[in-house]
Amino acid sequence: MKIAVIGANGQLGSDICSAFLANGHEVVPLNHDVIDITDLDRSRTVLAEALPQVTINTAAMHNVDACEAAPLKALEVNGIGARNLAILANELNFILFHISTDYVFDGKKKSPYIETDFPLPLNVYGNSKLCGENFVRSIAHRHFVVRVSGLYGVNPCRAKSGMNFVRLMLKLASERNEVRVVDDEILTPTFTEDIAQQILALSKTSHYGLYHVTAQGSCSWYTFAKKIFELAGCNVRLLVADPKEFAAKVARPKYSVLENRNLQELKIDIMPPWEEGLKRYLIKIGAAI
Questions:
Q1: Among residues 56, 82, 99, which one has the least CA distance to residue 134?
Q2: 20 to 30 A Cα–Cα from 189, which one of 32, 99, 110, 160?
Q3: Whole-number pLDDT of residue 157
Q4: Are 7 and 14 spatial neighbours (Cβ–Cβ below 8 Å)?
Q5: What pLDDT is stored for residue 160 in this prediction?
Q6: Residues in Cβ contact with 12 at an 8 Å cutoff, skipping those fewer than 6 apart
Q7: Nearest to 190 by CA among 257, 123, 268, 287
Q8: Is 10's pLDDT higher than 60?
Q9: Could you state, in order of their start, the residue ranges of all structural domains in the chain?
């Protein structure tokens, strides 16, 4: 198959390209200098020229603070951009994979969210991503909406100045004797390489719809940091930070764990425990002992 990957140079996009290439597919990488999903006509021209059978959209405005400061821009990219791709999926007859987020939930459930749970975002970012989900699900005849959580990958994260949480912790451990991390936010850290493999598996089915795709299990940011230091052999003192110490400007869900219920029902859930993904990531970047 010919696969177009929008945002091919990002954390997730780069791993998706690698996964499909390794499986013998033709991959067309489409970065922001080639395609702007907010421009319907330009996107139509680019995708009509590529003629993919599958288009995977990882492009998004996902800096939470930036979205809150520029809500119209966030809605344009995360909402209207997704709508444009959904329209083109029908026009050009391709299957659309659209990446969404755990931030469509408010975090008040306190047990893993499944795909049928009612979304209620706390911020502009979550609302704009939910808007994009709804456009894709209501317009594109053949689509997969994939919600992910706590991403980290080998390629730099543009929205965070090239830094993900794992790399940040390793950097701080090399510079300080003590690191403080909050323990009141629960999530599922997920290696982008594992998500790419799960998307590859989904692409072999025609079971279109909404899917949660995260590693198995959950932890707090503090527990995540503790495991990072343990696996990397970092000699640093880790302390629980007061929640007010790193108070976010924008409300975020305190609990955003997703359960891969729809994948499990299809018996194609290949996502590993989060600890396993972390170990493989640290080995890959040369940081594991």
A1: 82
A2: 32
A3: 64
A4: no
A5: 57
A6: 58, 99, 148, 151, 153, 192, 195, 196
A7: 257
A8: yes
A9: 2-154+191-216+257-272
Nearest to 229 by CA among 155, 184, 171, 189: 171
| CATH class of the domain comprising 2-154+191-216+257-272 | alpha beta
In angstroms, the CA 266 to CA 159 distance is 34
Q: Hey, is 67 helix, strand or coil?
A: helix
Active site residue 125: yes
Residue 263 and residue 197: Cα distance in Å, rounded? Answer: 13
Of 77 and 289, the one with more pLDDT: 77
Q: Based on the number of CB atoms within 10 Å of its own CB, is 226 exposed (0-12), middle (13-18) or buried (19 or more)?
A: middle
Asked if residues 97 and 17 have their Cβ atoms less than 8 Å apart, the reply is: no
Per-residue model confidence as pLDDT tens digits over 34-77: 999 999 999 999 999 999 999 999 999 989 999 999 999 999 99
C-alpha–C-alpha distance, residues 187 and 258, integer Å: 8
Token digits for 267? 């018996």
Distance of alpha carbon 172 from alpha carbon 138, whole angstroms: 44
Q: For residue 20, what are the contacts with CB-CB under 8 A and spacing of at least 6?
A: 3, 5, 27, 200, 203
Extract the tokens encoding 125: 């970012």
The pLDDT assigned to 15 comes to 96
Q: Which residue has the tokens 């599922």?
A: 188
* Candidates 113, 125, 211, 255; catalytic one: 125
Q: pLDDT (tens digit, 9 = 90+) per residue, 129-185? A: 999 999 999 999 999 999 999 999 988 766 556 679 999 999 998 888 889 988 889
